């Protein structure tokens, strides 16, 4: 088996509805420009509050993808 190298990037996704949708938005947006995505790790969840009400969910996601080693 050949060795592999992975890059990890940290993203923040947002949603008006849930943390799950916020995390999904981060991954699906990244998938438009990054190939061979492997693992998404949720590292932090928070909410934006306005006038005492939750108005936005945020999910900080570490996302790994494999470097393309084909020559």
Please, how many helices?
A: 1
Q: How would you characterize the largest beta sheet?
A: 3 strands, antiparallel
Q: Give helix % range.
A: 10-25%
Task: Give the mean pLDDT.
Answer: 93
- Strand percentage: over 45%
The CATH class name reads Alpha Beta
Strand line-up in the sheet with most strands: 1-3-2
Question: What's the CATH superfamily, by name?
Answer: Flavin-binding protein dodecin
Q: How does CATH name the architecture?
A: 2-Layer Sandwich
Assembly context of the chains: single chain
Question: What gap, in angstroms, lies between the N and C termini?
Answer: 18 Å
Give the topology string: H per helix, E per strand: EHEE
Any idea how many domains?
1
Tell me the number of strands. Answer: 3
Summary, kept brief:
17% of the residues lie in helices and 54% in strands. The chain is α+β, with helices and mostly antiparallel strands.
Walk me through this protein's architecture.
With 71 residues, the chain is an alpha+beta fold. The chain has one domain: Dodecin subunit-like. The protein is 17% helix and 54% strand. It has one helix and three strands, in the order βαββ. A three-stranded antiparallel beta sheet has the order 1-3-2. The model has no long low-confidence stretch (mean pLDDT 93).
Which properties best describe this structure?
71 residues; alpha+beta; Dodecin subunit-like; three-stranded antiparallel sheet; 1 helix; 3 strands; 17% helix; 54% strand
């Amino acid at each position: 088996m050949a060795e592999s190298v992975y890059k990890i990037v940290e993203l923040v996704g947002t949603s008006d509805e849930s943390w799950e949708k916020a995390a999904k938005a981060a991954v699906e947006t990244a998938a438009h420009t990054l190939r061979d995505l492997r693992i998404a790790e949720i590292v932090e969840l928070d909410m934006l509050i306005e006038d005492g009400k939750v108005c936005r969910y945020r999910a900080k996601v570490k996302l790994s993808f494999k470097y393309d080693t084909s020559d």
